[in-house]
Every structure is written in C-alpha cells, then in structure tokens.
C-alpha cells in the first residue's frame, strides 16, 4: 500500500474529471458538487472500453462519455440495466493535498 | 378490511399485463407480490432483436419501470426464482423466503428449446430469449467472426440479422426446404430468402444438426448428411418450450404447458396460469396478442367480474424481418377447395395471396406491403361474403391517411394488444384523453411493437376534431428525472425566471440531484435559447464532444476538423494541415462527408497544440449546431451554374457558425437544379435557379432518410439570409432537444412554418433574437489556447512519478 500525492484539492474543478497516470494505471479523479473527491480507474467497464474523465458528472455518478453507462463513483458499480464494475481507489485529503491509496 | 394476497411467479409481458389489468379494475383489492427470475423489471421481449441490431437501448424497451412497481405498491423480487408451490398451505417458496398467497398466478413464460444433441452445452451455444442471450451474442461478436443460427423461423432470422449487424458472418441452418414455413408459402418464402441473401445471410437448407463440435468452446456443427460447418457462436432458435418446472414439482396438472380452462384456472383452486407457460385447449400460444387476451380474461376473473371466457385466439401474424414487412393469417396453402388471388411483383418486392373458399377469405399471406392486413383480417374473421367484390377492390390498399370516419369500429388497430378503433374512440371520449401517451396507457394500443402509433394518432386527431392539438398530443417528458415535457419546462423557465440548470432542477422538483445525460444538456440549451446573450453556458452540462470541442473516438482519442467555409480551402491552409499531420504523426487524415478534412486519433493532451499550429477556427464537426454548408462549384467556374453557390455557402456558414441548435444542422447550396451539393437531403438546402433561389427544408440523409420540402423560392441572397435566420430561430425556439429539423417539421407541419415565416414582423423578431444570440459566441479552440485554466481542466493528463514530489 502506498499513499501517493496526486493533486491540489483547491485547484480541482467541481464536476470535471482530472486524469492521472500512475505507473501505467490510468485513474480518473472527480470532485463532486458536495466537495468530496472520488477516484476510479479511468477505463469504462463497457466491453468496448473508453475513458471516463470526460463523462458527465451527476451527484455521485459519472456517465460513461462514449456509451452512456451510469457508474457509481462511490463503489464503482455500473447502474442497471447495464452491468459491470470499475475499480475504485481510496482518496485522502490533507492540507489541500489529494492522495490516492493504492 | 384485509387485502387479499396476490402472488405472481414470473415478471414477463403476459403476467405483468395481467397485473396491470387487475390494478385498473380493482386498484385497492390486492397486496401484490411478483417474483422474477431475471434481475430486471418487465421488458419488451419483442424488441430484443432491436437491441441485438443496435438500434435500441435496454432502457427503451422497459415496459414497466421500477418506479411503476413502487407507485402501485407491488412488492417485486427480481433475480429470485420460486422453487416450490405448497398448494396445501397456499404459499410459495424461494431460496430466500416463504410468501403466502390467496391467489396465485403462474406466468413463467418459456425457455429456448435447446436441441438435445451432443455438445449443446459447450461455450458459445445460446438460445435467443432474454437480455443475457443478447449480451452473450454481442460480446461474442467482438471476439469471434463466424456465427451459425439454427432455425429459419422468425426468431432465427431476427437473430441472424442482428448478428450481421454486429459484423459477424452468419449461416442460417434450416431443417425444411422453406424459411418461415408456418407463416409463408413457398413463393413468399423464397422472396424473403433472396432478400436476406442479398443482405449477406448464407443459408444451409434441409440440414439437420446432429452434433456441436469443439473443445470447451464450440468450433463447428456436424449435420446428418456428414457435412460440417465452422462456427464460433451457435444460436438455437428452433422454438420455445413452456417453462413449467415450478408447476411440475407442485402437483399442478400439465401437459406441454400448464393446463388451464377458459378462465385460465389450473386444476388447483386459486392457482392460475397465463402466457407462454399455459396450455389452453391443447394450444400453447407464443405471440403477444393472444397472451394479452388471456391476461384480460384472467384479470376479470380474479377480480370477480363475470366475463366472457377465453375461447382461444385466431391471430394474424404481423412481422418485420430484416426490413421486410410480412403478414400472414389463417391458411397458407392452396388445396382443391380453395381459389386464390395472387399478386406477384418481384420488381417492387411485393407479393400478396388471398385464399378463398366458398366466397370467404380463409387465408392471407402478404409480403413487402402489409397495408391491407387489418382490412383482410377483418374480412377473414368476420367471414364476410366477398362474392360481390372484384379482386382489385379486395386487394386495393387503403389510403394510409385513410378515412378514419368510415372505418368500422371493430377494425383492429393494434394487433399486438387486440385494440380496436372502437375501444380507442370510446376511451378518448369517455376519459377525455388528449395525448398519444394517454391513449396508449388506457388502451394499451401501441405499447408493444409500436407500429400502429401513427394510426392511433390519426384516430385521436379525428375523434377530437378541432380540439386536437398535435403538439400536446405527443407529450413526452424530457427524461426520467422529471414528468414535465419540453414545453412545460421551457414555459416554467420563462415564467419563473429560472436562470441556471441547478435552479431549474430545484424549483421544478427534479427526481435526481444533478440530472442525467438527457436533461442536463437539454436544460443548458433551453437556457441559452431563452436568455440569448445573457446566459453563461454551463460547459460541464454538455456531453463529451461539445465539452471538449472535438469528437471522441472509440479509443478515447479525438478528431480535429477545422472550419473550411463552404468547403472552400487554399493551398496555404492545406499546407498547414499537412504539416501538422506529419509533425504529430496523425494516424488518419480523411475527407469528411461534409467537405472538410478530418485529423483522427489525436490525444486530448495534444488538442490545444494542434489547434494552435493549425491556427484555424473549429469546424464544429462535433456539435449540436451548424455543421457544414456543402457547396457545389457554381457560377464562378461551372458552365451550368446559374448562381454563386460558393459565395452563398460561405456567407451562410460565417453567419450561423457556432450557433447552438436542438440538434445538428446541415446545409447545402447548389447553383443549379442538378444539385451537386445534395441540398435536397439537408436540413436547409438552397438550389439556384435563373433569377433566384429555391429553399428546401426538413431534408435528411441520415437515419431518417427524407427529401426536403420546397419551402419557397426567393429572388435575392438577402432574402435567403432573412428566411434562413427566421426559419432556424423558429426551429431553435420550438423543437425538442435532439429533434432533427426533419422530425420537427413533420411534427409542426410545413404549412404552419410557412404561415409563421410569411409574417414580416414575426420574421424580423425571429431574426433579431437570432442576431442577439449569435453575438455571444467566441471561437472555442482559440479560447482554449489562450486560457490556461481551460487547458488544465479539460486537456491535461497528469503523470505521477511514484516516489517523487512532482506532479
């Protein structure tokens, strides 16, 4: 387990994806309207794949920008009627720094 | 009073329809519990082939949403199968719970019939019955190439068509010499086969499959004659088998299906069966119309209403296979006692056969043109004496816009749900219905395959007469987050002075916190349309392409299409594009359909740099906006050109570029009626004639292929600009979001638009609002180049080196 600093909290834009690459793992960071930050793997579970950072963010969900799947940013689960799951990462915020635990 | 407990096993179309009927008759009488094996609410199985063919999403085929179950206080357990019925203690048992019942409906439907041959359990072998089967086929198509469908009936052909759409090679294996032999005669069948072959299907006729070969996964099929064929995917679509497992274990009498009487009662008191699992007078029905008839009889019976028994159904089969309309009812084959009328027109792909015995129609087969089907079916079921009629009058197609007034009340309008004109008219009059949605809801007309909707709409118009309001009749809420329609939302925004997406959602009681991909972009558009230059666009409520000002591709890269007004470019611009493509190793450079040059495969981090080096404005090839104005060479060079099409095209594109519209808008300008710019299939097209311009509107060259309507002819370029501005602005102000001009024009009517545009004051006002709106736009690529905040927010990927502080 490592704790990696990835972004400055106050610079993150709300409801916009922030894409990061850590050792070849692509991660999408989202700051929600309620100020919380979530991190998920930046790869849609749709069979045809695709990125998630550019998806529309609504509450606790992001919509896959290419195939419009609705994905929970809390547990990574794809919402019915579609099925699937993306990996989620734990996020820590400390003194305006955003860390990912992985 | 304690409510009676009604339990239903099965959550499919026939069962849930029965529940709907029960709720309509006796809304408070029962506590209802439904068990469904599949993890979904009730969906429209008829439309599975549309999902496979990629033209519908799962959400669109849901008939009863989860909210419907909640609103009607139905306890729904999905993904939970009932394993046993205890008819003594009147309770059902699942793996998780025991639930008591007073009345029990078994509506477990059917399963695909899987051939009992060696290898049928291998990976890559599937039926075609539910969403899982569809998903399995879709996934297979991504990895594998060759599919074999066993069964040349309706289901098999639909599966095969879907697999072709998914890019697979498809063989269809059929045991008999003719496709769909139960619905079609050999002539219609061979016409269908020829059509499907031209679409790329390959047929292996009169082949009996005896083994599925392969290791873990299927690799091929072996036939009785010893021949073999390769296959990476096998779909069995031979037939269905009533799913009666739960009844078998519970002492309920069954044969092929669960045996029921004319009131859908089984041999056990208070236990009923309905739908594909039920066997009535030795027939198990598989089409939706008879199943819905059964549901209605059962609902009445359970609610204690004395009603006519179910005495079986004669039904016509209206089908659409791979784009071909088919209809069949009654007998198919001639014998010595029948006479037939046949029309065979291979050139137009039409075939009709009417079988007559003793001056009565006893059979109908229609191929390619099924407009007469309701009339002929009525004549068949009513046993009308046709001796006074000529063959022409029997076969004469009813006008499509038909004379609703002279149509008899018992004419069947919705074949799927058995709804007649009389029932629809009655519901409209007695319940004061005014919209298509309401009519569907009350009568079920149009709720299954949806093909009768235009007819239902005509009946609504005819019945309401002057009170009919076409726009209101088709009220549909803008998305699942609200019950309000587009017009209601727009009216509320104006009336209450709502100024942001968030405020709209708060004030109008949105069901979701921040909307969805349907309503967010729509609301953002409405605000920009209403407040013109005052509204600050909410970029994060736009979908990816408009947000990024580039078109996302399936691999997450983007395309860059620079503006090239009227499709006219220069050597200098071409050099710039070439240099950028070379320098950045752009994977694909391609001419687009709208006379532009596209650079494909660009990473999002590289977009701003590439835009800067191009130093050209965005071509908006990604937006709900004016895409391109396609032009022909015109009078400047062409010997036929009567007008300067390039100049007009450039002027139009310069004026209207960047404008937000409900959906994309394409234009074309031709300098003569030869129409090289294909202006007849553009949203707005202009054709130069001697001394003026013809304006065409509502054309579409895409999904909804439609030739444009001639709106008017004007004399000067100024008039063209004025009419175009007014027309576009009227479209912007009245269309649904994501409604193309072709659909919009059909909805509001060409004559209506002409009336609007004929009024000079209205025209001026529309143009004034258009001009005010156009002022607000800034060139987005340049904005991104200049603005570091935008670059950081949208066009940056942050590579983190582990163990380092940098980012």
Kindly list the characteristics that best describe this protein:
heterodimer; A: 102 residues; mainly beta; Rieske Iron-sulfur Protein; three-stranded antiparallel β-sheet; 0% helix; B: 807 residues; alpha/beta; FAD/NAD(P)-binding domain; Enolase-like, domain 1; 6 domains; five-stranded parallel β-sheet; globular
Could you say what the CATH topology of chain A is called?
Rieske Iron-sulfur Protein
List the uncertain runs of chain A: none
* CATH domain topology of the largest domain in chain B: Sulfite Reductase Hemoprotein, domain 1
The main β sheet of chain B shows up as: 5 strands, parallel
Number of helices of chain B: 28
**Computed CA radius of gyration of chain B, to the nearest angstrom:** 30 Å
Molecular shape of chain A:
globular
Write the CATH architecture name of chain A: 3-layer Sandwich
What's a quick, concise take on this entry?
The complex is a heterodimer of chains A (102) and B (807). With 102 residues, chain A is mainly β. In chain A, 0% of the residues lie in helices and 44% in strands.
């Amino acid at each position: 387990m490592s704790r990696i600093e990835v972004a400055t909290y106050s610079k993150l834009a709300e409801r916009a994806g922030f894409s990061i690459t850590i050792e070849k793992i692509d991660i999408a960071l989202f700051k929600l309207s309620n100020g919380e930050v979530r991190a998920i793997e930046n790869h849609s579970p749709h069979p045809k794949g695709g990125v998630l950072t550019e998806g529309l963010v609504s509450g606790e969900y992001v919509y896959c920008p290419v195939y419009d799947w609705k994905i929970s940013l809390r547990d990574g689960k794809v919402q019915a009627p579609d099925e699937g799951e993306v990996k989620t990462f734990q996020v820590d915020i400390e003194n305006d720094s955003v860390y990912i635990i992985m | 009073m304690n409510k009676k407990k009604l339990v239903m096993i099965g959550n499919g179309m026939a069962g849930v329809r029965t529940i709907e009927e029960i709720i309509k008759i006796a809304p408070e009488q029962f506590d209802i519990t439904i068990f469904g094996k599949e993890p979904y609410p009730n969906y429209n199985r008829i439309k599975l082939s549309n999902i496979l063919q990629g033209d519908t999403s799962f959400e669109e085929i849901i008939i009863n949403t989860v909210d419907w179950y909640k609103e009607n206080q139905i306890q729904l357990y999905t993904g939970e199968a009932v394993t046993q019925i205890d008819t003594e203690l009147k309770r059902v048992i699942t793996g998780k719970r025991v639930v008591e019942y007073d009345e029990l409906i078994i509506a477990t439907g059917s399963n695909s019939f899987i051939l009992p041959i060696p290898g049928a359990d291998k990976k890559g072998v599937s039926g075609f019955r539910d969403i899982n089967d569809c998903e399995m086929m879709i996934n297979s198509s991504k990895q594998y190439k060759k599919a074999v469908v066993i069964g040349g009936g309706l289901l098999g052909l639909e599966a095969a068509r879907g697999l072709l759409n998914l890019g697979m090679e498809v063989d269809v294996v059929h045991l008999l010499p003719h496709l769909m032999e139960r619905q079609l005669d050999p002539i219609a069948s061979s016409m269908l086969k020829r059509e499907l072959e031209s679409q790329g299907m390959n047929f292996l006729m009169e082949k009996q499959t005896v083994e599925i070969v392969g290791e873990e996964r299927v690799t091929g099929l072996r036939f009785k004659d010893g021949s073999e064929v390769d296959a990476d995917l096998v779909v069995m679509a031979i037939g269905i088998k009533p799913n009666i497992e739960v009844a078998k274990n519970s002492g309920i009498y069954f044969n092929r299906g669960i045996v029921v009487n004319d009131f859908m009662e089984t041999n056990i008191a208070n236990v009923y069966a309905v739908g594909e699992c039920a066997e009535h007078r030795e027939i198990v029905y598989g089409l939706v119309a008879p199943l819905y008839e059964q549901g209605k009889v059962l609902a009445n019976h359970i609610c204690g209403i004395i009603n006519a028994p179910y005495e079986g159904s004669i039904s016509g089969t209206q089908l659409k296979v791979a784009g071909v309309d088919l209809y069949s009812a009654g007998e198919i084959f001639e014998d010595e006692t029948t006479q037939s009328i046949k029309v065979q027109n291979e050139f137009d792909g039409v075939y009709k056969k009417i079988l007559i015995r003793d001056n009565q129609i006893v059979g109908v087969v229609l191929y390619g043109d099924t407009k007469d089907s309701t009339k002929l079916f009525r004549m068949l079921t009513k046993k009308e004496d046709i001796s006074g009629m000529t063959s022409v009058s029997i076969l004469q197609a009813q006008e499509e816009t038909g004379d609703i007034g002279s149509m008899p009340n018992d004419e069947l309008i919705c074949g799927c749900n058995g709804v007649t004109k009389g029932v629809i008219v009655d519901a409209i009059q007695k319940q004061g219905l005014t919209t298509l949605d309401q009519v569907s809801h009350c009568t079920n007309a149009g709720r299954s395959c949806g093909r009768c909707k235009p007819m239902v709409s005509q009946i609504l118009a005819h019945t309401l007469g002057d009170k009919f309001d076409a726009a209101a009749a088709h009220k549909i809420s803008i998305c699942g987050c609200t019950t309000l329609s587009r017009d209601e939302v727009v009216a509320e925004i104006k009336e209450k002075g709502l100024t942001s997406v968030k405020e709209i959602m708060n004030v109008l009681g949105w069901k979701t916190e921040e909307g969805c991909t349907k309503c967010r972009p729509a609301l953002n558009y409405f605000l920009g349309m209403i407040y013109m230059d005052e509204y600050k666009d909410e970029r994060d409520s736009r979908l990816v392409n408009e947000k990024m000002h580039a078109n996302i591709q399936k691999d997450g890269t983007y395309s860059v299409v620079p503006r090239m007004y009227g499709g006219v470019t220069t050597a200098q611009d071409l050099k710039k594009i070439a240099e950028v493509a070379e320098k950045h190793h752009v994977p694909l450079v391609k001419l687009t359909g709208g006379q532009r040059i596209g650079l494909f495969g660009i990473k999002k981090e590289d977009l701003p740099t590439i835009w800067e080096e191009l130093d050209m404005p965005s071509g908006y090839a990604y937006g709900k906006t004016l895409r391109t104005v396609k032009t022909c060479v015109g009078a400047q060079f062409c010997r036929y050109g009567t007008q300067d099409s390039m100049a007009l095209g450039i002027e139009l594109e310069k004026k209207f570029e960047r404008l937000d519209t409900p959906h994309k808008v394409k234009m074309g300008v031709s300098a003569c009626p030869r129409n090289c710019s294909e202006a007849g299939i553009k949203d707005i097209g202009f054709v130069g004639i001697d001394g003026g311009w013809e304006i065409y509107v509502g054309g579409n060259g895409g999904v909804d292929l439609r030739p444009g309507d001639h709106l008017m002819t004007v004399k000067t370029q100024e008039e063209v600009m004025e009419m175009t501005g007014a027309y576009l602005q009227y479209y912007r102000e009245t269309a649904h979001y994501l409604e193309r001009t072709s659909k919009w024009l059909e909805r509001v009517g060409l004559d209506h638009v002409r009336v609007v545009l004929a009024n000079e004051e209205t025209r001026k006002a529309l143009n004034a609002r258009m001009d005010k709106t156009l002022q607000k736009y800034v060139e987005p690529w340049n904005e991104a180049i200049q603005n570091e905040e935008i670059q950081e927010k949208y066009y940056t990927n942050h590579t983190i080196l582990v163990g380092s502080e940098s980012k």
